[in-house]
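User: I'm putting together a teaching handout on how sequence relates to shape, and I'd like one worked example. Could you take Cupin type-1 domain-containing protein from Rhizoctonia solani, show the sequence you're using, and then write out its predicted structure as tokens right after it?

Assistant: Happy to. First the sequence, then the structure tokens directly below it.
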Amino acid sequence: MHLAVVSLLALATCASTAPAVSLESITTTTGSTTSTTPVSSATTYPSGTTTNTSSGVGAPVSVASSTSSAASSTPTVAYAPDDPNDSFWSQFQNTVPVPERGSTGASILGPQNVPLDREGPDFLAPPSTDSGSVENVKWSLSLSHNRMQSGGWARQQNEHDMPIATAMAGVNMRLKAGAMRELHWHTTAEWAYVLAGSCRVTSVDQNGRNYIADVYPGDLWYFPAGIPHGLQGLNDTADGCEFLLVLDSGTFSEDSTFQVTDWLAHVPKEVLAKNFRVNASAFDHIPSRELYMIPSAVPTGTPEEDGVTSPQGTVPLPFSFAASKAPATNTTGGSVKIIDSRTFNISKTISVAEVTVDVGGIRELHWHPTQPEWSFFIEGNARITVFAASANARTFDYQAGDIGYVPPSFGHYVENIGNTTLKFLEIFNSDVYEDISLNQWLALTPPDMVKAHLQLSDDTISKLQKVKPIVVGPGLL
């Protein structure tokens, strides 16, 4: 016993003066046996990061400095509990959900909406880490009123539905093949992501320069505030198209846009005749009210064939972007594709990250410094815990067709809790995409400070990454 105590004291003394661990090899001693383990071969990138080439992953990694010389700190509060807090999503799909976690909760004796509880397992049985109060940051488009027309439909989300979402609003729209979203404009900019099918977009800017293009799934368009435009469904890949619109104001309403038919219906025909220098009878058949959507034939020509030549030329910055053809960055747990004004130059108020997360993976713990995140879920199932400071944290569950919203600087993650790939959009009212990675922040902070805060081991600190992981694969349990 005395020998063991002396040995421990000696080890502690040595640890305080031990040199940093070599990145070329790690030497371990067990009893009388000493072994040296080489660190995996690595490729150095221009930024100074490394890629582990022996693992076959190829994702950039760069480990933090050693803390072997750091002094130990004394914890001042109790350690966080080890309560199991996995999502019950998989478990609830084949059973009647119950609000029980560990020794807390009880079964439901009264009425129960089983399908809704299966969609929101972390609302019914929240993790023990949830605390305090966080305003609702989830809206399902299935709860939105649908405006149905002969040419398609449209449903929206704005502050009326999710009051916290003040910076952006969204519209999900469907156009049949040939159907047109009538010529119109907004006081806000319009950004769009094509979900399915194909669509033709047309526009004219304030200098008389025009634009026409066809867009496909994963492609984008953007019209600055006040710029008139029109949309038409095509049929080369599907019966029309479906897309997501994002407007850079939470108060936007799809029912309050400027429509060309609505305007002309409220201008005296005598004025129309003077304006266009024709007889007033030329306007005998204009609609008496807005049309909004117009059934029509599918265009037979290409954009180049059907477009009108403007003496002022075409717009200098294209209003659409073939994001579907842009490469994504692969990570250990999925992929990310960022499109902002640096690549889609005209998009001055909206930027996006298209993210995929493998089964069991996670969009890493992070936050966005100055802009809220408006999220749209395309495929799969996710849970997000939103941290609002001062011990306020709440977990929300999302599935395809849901919208999320995270205010600026609120810490969060996006975990794939389903059994298929998760795909979603992170959208921002900003010209440039920005985020802060918790992993990177800790890796680039002096190790003794990190250890003093979190009581992490030297081994754990050495695995922190100086390059953002972004999307991480399933971890060790």
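A couple of points you could highlight for students: The radius of gyration is 28 Å. The domain at 167-321 is CATH 2.60.120.10 (Jelly Rolls).
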